[in-house]
Design brief:
Shape: globular
Number of helices: 6
Helix content: 55-70%
Strand order of the largest sheet: 1-3-2
Oligomer: single chain
Radius of gyration: 19 Å
Strand content: 5-15%
Order of helices and strands: HHEHHEEHH
């Protein structure tokens, strides 16, 4: 197998990166415009609310986000300063909880998120190509 891309492979790889980047950036912008939070804030808050019923152990949250401990800790400090989350120590474990403000913001952010994903991704896949597209995406995501 060659060590470099063919011209077609290089163009397709670049197109893949641009498409993924455009969708993610557009979704992040929509969340920020609508709810005033970053995509990272949204990731934290939705996991707290959806997976933890409002709170999770910090280590579990780090695992869910696949973030380094230091990155998560710094981000949580900023979110705590803005009143979106609280932190509490329970023995050796640190727990993170969404505040009422954080929960309220998630409601608006979810609407913006869903609308943006539909507009920037789902609606751009022609109906006759959707099954094949999502099948390929699933194989890639599952490592198969």
């Amino acid at each position: 197998m060659p060590d470099t891309f063919t011209v077609d492979e290089g163009e397709r790889w670049t197109a893949w990166k641009r498409a993924a980047g455009a969708v993610m950036a557009g979704v992040g912008e929509s969340i920020a415009d609508s709810a005033g939070i970053s995509a990272s804030d949204f990731s934290v808050l939705t996991r707290l609310v959806e997976e933890g019923g409002g709170s999770l152990r910090q280590q579990h949250l780090a695992d869910q986000l696949d973030w380094e401990r230091s990155r998560l800790s710094r981000h949580l400090s900023r979110m705590e300063g803005r009143g979106l989350i609280t932190r509490r120590q329970n023995g050796p474990e640190r727990w993170i909880a969404a505040t009422e403000d954080g929960r309220a913001i998630v409601v608006e952010a979810r609407r913006a998120h869903a609308t943006a994903v539909r507009r920037l991704l789902f609606d751009r896949i022609p109906p006759g190509e959707r099954e094949m597209f999502w099948s390929a995406v699933s194989r890639i995501a599952d490592g198969g």
